[in-house]
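Case study 2.
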Amino acid sequence: MGEKMHVTIVDDVQDNLLSYKELLESNFDLELIQNPVELIGYLNSKKTDLVLLDLHMPTMNGFELYGKFKDTHPELPVIFLTGDPSEDVVVQGMELGADDFIVKPVSLNELVARIKNKIITKRGSNSTEETISFDGFKLYTEVQMAEVGEKRVQLTPIEFKIIHLLSKSPNKIFSREYLGNLLWPNVHVQNQNIDTHLSNLRKKLKPFSSNIKTIKSRGYILRI
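Prediction:
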């Protein structure tokens, strides 16, 4: 039997941690952290495959804590857990670069499946560095950076997901619904959220971004 995946869970409520331990320890090796500040030291000295991060903690909320380690551990998958199903909260977490956002209550089977999926996906994406190239444009997937002519462009996590999808399958139309589910899984978002990110992406990637077309009533395409 292969080595278990390792999951670090951060929640300021001890009873919650004990519940997660009871539910998940048969599937994963676990590190349970009640004091959010301790996570930074732990990540700097130990290896984990994924962080399961409660959003609402009094000393430091999950967004603030994530901001303290996302730049030093950019490849570490992070799933936020929250009891707040509002769109604004979920969108904020995904835009920060979280890999998933789970609204409680969630079934054990779904939680296990989503943790495993994120770890396996991240391991696969790290196996080889991929560079996607077109005339006057390169996309470096490992560092989520683009190159337009001689100019290097740093992309936000959402911008990267959009251009990565389009550039992997040029000349293919992707619907708003497909794109929205890719960017914010399991959450219904307003179309203007997608439009805002596309607008910012087009500005950053000029003049190459003239190839990103909006097809009325159908979606978006990278015409090459």
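The mean pLDDT is 86.
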